[in-house]
Request: fold
Amino acid sequence: MIDATARRDAAFATAAGTAAVAGSYLVTGWSPSFVVSPVDQMIVNLTPGAIVTFMIETVGDAGHLLHIAMAFAAVAGVFGAVSFAGLRLGKRVDSPVSVGVVVGVGSWLLAAGLTGTPVLALGAAVPVAAATALGDAIGTDDTTASVDAVRRQTLGTAAGALGVVAASIIGRQALTSVPQSGGSPTSAPQSEGSLDSAPEFEGAESRLQALDSASLSLESDSLLGLKSPIDEFYNVDITEFDPEITADEWSLTFTGETGRERTVTFDELVDQPVEHRAVSLRCVGEQLNGRKLDTAVWTGTPIRPLLESVDPAGECNCAMLRGKDGYYVQFPVDVLAEGFLAWGMNGKELPPAHGHPVRVLIPGHWGETNVKWLTEIELLDVEEDGYWEERGWEGTGEVKAVAKLWDEGVTTLSDGRIELAGHAYAGTRGISRVEVSTDGGESWTDATLSDPLPDDDVWRQWRYVFEPDGTHEAVVRAVDGEGNRQIREPSDPSPTGSSGWVRRTIET
Ligand SMILES: Nc1nc2c(c(=O)[nH]1)N[C@H]1C(S)=C(S)[C@@H](COP(=O)(O)O)O[C@H]1N2
Ligand SMILES: [Mo]
Reply:
C-alpha cells in the first residue's frame, strides 16, 4: 500500500507539473518558446505515417487537439516527476529552501534545454520550485499525518494548481490585450507590420478588386467569393506552434549541388521585381467536397532569377525545400523555377500562420509544395522523400480537378427555383466548364462560370439554377482547360488526393 505522504507528494508534484505548463504559458503565450511546443513537435515526428494519415482521414483537424493534449500531459508529467523527486529528497534534507532551489535549477535546465530560451524557461521553473518548496514545508514534520489532513492538503493543492492555471490564462489575456505577438491557436497574431503601408501592397488592391468584380453575383450571400479572407483561409501545419521569425532574422539559403551557394536576405528579396498573383491552394489530404481549397492575392517575386543565379547542378534535377518548423518537401527544379516567393497576402504582410515572413507558391501543384517559413532550398543529386512522402502521401505533383458544392452553395430563390453554386479548380490547366446534373448523372447541363482571370493558377466560380420537382440528386463535375473531365472513380484522399464527383441530395 502506498503511504499517505507519498500520495500527498504525488498530488503536490502533479500540481507543480501543471504549474510549470501554466507558468510557461504566462510568459511565452502560444509560441515556440512555450514548453509544450518542442514536446508537441517530438510527438509529431515520432507518430508513424500510417497513424497520421488515418487521423487526417477520420478525425481531421481534431488530430491536432489529440497530440497537443498528449504533449500537455507529457510536459506536466515530466516537471511533476522532478518535483516528486524533490519532495522525496526533502524527507532527508530539512530545508524547503534547498529543495526549492534544487528542483528549480533542475526544472530550469529542463525547460531551457527543451525550448532553447533560458530566460523564458524561468516561466516553467519558478512555479515548480515554489510549489515543491511549499509542499516540502507543509509536509516535512508530519509523516504521521492523519488521512483527513492529507486529504485536505491534496484538495488544497488541486485547488491551488487550478488557481495558477486560471491566473496564468487571465494574466496572459491582460498582457496580450496590448497588441503584440502572442495570442491563441485560433486567432493567430496579426502583427501590424510596417510593410503593410509599403507602396508595393497598393498593387495588391487592384488584384483584389479584380477578384471581387469577377465573382458571380449569387443569391446565396454566405458562399465565399473568389477571394478567401485571411482569417478564413484554410491552414495545414505539421506542428501546433507557428515559428516566429522576423523579416530581419529571415534569410533563404541555396545549398547543396549549386555552382555557388547564396543567401538572400529579406531586404534583397523585396528589392526584386514585385508581382501580385491570385493563386489557389488545395491540400492533397482534403475530402472530395472538403474545405482545404482557398484563394488569395499574394505579393512576391518570381523565384527563377534567384535560382538561376546559383547554377543548380544536381544529378536528379530536384530540390528539397525546408521550412523553419522542420517541414521539408522535394520536387523537380523545373517546377520550382515556375515558383513565386511571397511575403504578402491579400494586401498585408504574410501572416504567421501562412509562413511569415516568406513562403513559396508553386503553380498548379498540391498545397504541400508551398513551403511556409521557407529558409533553405537544397539542390540534390539523388531524390529524397519529403515529410508527407515519408508518411505515405504522393502530393508533390499537379492537383486533380475538382468542382465543389458546399452547404452554402444551395439556396432557394424567392420564385421557388433552386440555385446551386460553388468553386472549381484544376491548377494551371484552368477550368473550361462545370457540368451539373440534377437527376443523379442521367443528364448534364453546363453551369455559368465566373469571368476568367489573368492569373493562371486560380479557381473559378460556377452557378446553375433549376426548377425543382421533388427530390433531386445533384452531381457536379469540372472539365479542365485541356478538356479533361474530373476523374469519376471515387477515391480517398490518401495517397494521391481524393477523386470522384461531388453529389448532394436536394429535398424540396
Ligand atoms: N513549413 C511548412 N510549410 C507547409 C506546411 C507545413 O506544415 N509547414 N504544410 C503544407 C501543406 S500540407 C499545405 S496544404 C499548405 C497549406 O498552406 P496554408 O496553411 O497557408 O493554407 O502548406 C504547406 N506548407
Ligand atoms: Mo496539404
In short: Residues 233-238, 281, 283, 323, 325, 327, 354, 367-368, 370-373 surround MTE (ligand 1) (CB under 6 Å).
